[in-house]
Write a structure and sequence with these properties.
This protein folds into two domains: 2-95, no CATH class; 117-342, no CATH class. It is 12% helix and 24% strand. The protein has helices at 2-13, 59-63, 167-174, 180-184, 222-231, and strands at residues 19-23, 26-30, 43-46, 56-57, 73-76, 81-86, 89-95, 117-120, 123-130, 133-136, 160-161, 177-178, 205-206, 281-284, 290-293, 296-300, 307-314, 321-326, 341-342. 36% of the residues are buried. Residues 3-17 and 213-217 have low confidence and may be disordered.
């Protein structure tokens, strides 16, 4: 009875009128008077306009439940499944259906300015179909309040801003540089955002993920699929008959010159053959030193772990690369560019 009284007190505080009654140890919680629990139920919930919410938790939260009871039920928001604990294991009872696959990754996003485009907070972004994914072909320019965050050396405060704090010169070309938590729209408390989090990307898009390492660089991995599968499997993006693919992702303009034919900065006929339009927006270091504009482009990933990966193009290199950095590494404090990729049924 103490539990029932607490429930009544709680709903009274928020001015929701509920009626709790019991008969022969059967209880009903209802928003209607004179309700009784069905004779076969020990507890019945009764409402015309409210539902029953299961505990919603991540995979990590679920696995940290101490000594779960047989038949314990939760909703796993990462897998979008209702799960039950039986025979010392979690079992999926029901999962949200997968969306129907589209005919092409950018289907439905045809535009008036570009073949494919999306308008987001006042800017129209060009989109590019590359392999099995629909990518932003421009760096993100969205400010969700991060430009008002004060910078602190060696700390990821959720800052974003323009290269050299000079938006008049650099914003139109390169967009903002974001610290990781700003890109992920994360308050730096609780669980890390899972892989393929929306972050500050538009609805229907997410921050590209990069797996947990080279062994997972392809499977269900946006950057890995782009670099290690699609580009490698298509000789049209190779330079010199070898697996030199970086120039196919780099725009023609603004890169520092390199004399080597297949390098990003050579501005060969290979440049931007994918339409990715990678630009050398540089980055800002943990002590707010701005470097590498014109020489390098860096883009964040979402990894769902304490390892934070980034993808990069370098003016005097012929390979597209992505690197892993541990959460304790200084790079999480750095500011990098951000691209978004469409969330599809893969």
């Amino acid at each position: 009875m103490k539990l029932i009284k607490r429930i009544i007190a709680f709903f009274s505080i928020i001015n929701v009128c509920l009626f709790v009654s019991h008969a022969q140890n059967r209880f009903v919680i209802s928003d209607k008077a004179d309700s009784e629990a069905h004779q076969s139920a020990i507890l019945e919930l009764n409402s015309d306009n409210k539902g029953f919410l299961l505990p919603r938790m991540s995979l990590n939260n679920r696995d940290n439940i101490n000594d779960p009871a047989e038949s314990l039920v939760i909703f796993n928001h990462e897998t979008q499944c209702i799960e039950i604990y039986v025979d010392t294991k979690w079992h999926e009872v029901w999962c949200a259906p997968e969306p129907e696959p589209l005919g092409s990754p950018c289907e439905g996003l045809e535009g008036e300015i570009y073949d494919y485009e999306i308008e987001y907070h006042g800017y129209v972004y060009k989109l590019a179909e590359i392999g099995y994914r629909c990518w932003f072909a421009e760096n993100l320019k969205y400010d969700n309040g991060c430009t008002s965050v004060n910078w602190e050396d060696n700390e990821d405060m959720g800052w974003c801003g323009c290269y050299n704090d000079d938006c008049a010169t650099y914003f139109d070309k390169y967009g903002y540089l974001y610290q990781w938590s700003a890109a992920m729209d994360w308050d730096r408390e609780g669980d890390l955002p899972p892989a393929k989090s929306q972050g500050i990307c538009p609805d229907g898009f997410h921050v590209p993920n990069a797996g947990e390492g080279s062994s997972q660089s392809i499977d269900d991995c946006d950057w890995g699929d782009l670099i290690f599968r699609y580009l490698f499997d298509n000789p049209e993006y190779h330079c010199g008959g070898e697996y030199k693919t970086a120039s196919s992702l780099a725009d023609y303009v603004d890169w520092e010159y390199s004399p080597e034919e297949c390098d990003v900065g050579h501005n060969s006929v290979m440049n931007n053959s994918t339409g990715f339009s990678g630009m050398p927006g540089g980055h800002v270091s943990r002590e707010k030193q701005f470097t590498d504009v014109g020489r390098k482009g860096y883009w964040w990933s979402s990894s769902g772990s304490s390892n934070n990966y980034h993808f990069s193009l370098i003016y005097d290199n012929d390979s597209a690369m992505y690197y892993g950095r541990f959460g304790s590494d200084f790079l999480i404090c750095d500011g990098l560019s951000l691209r978004c990729v469409r969330t599809l049924n893969e």
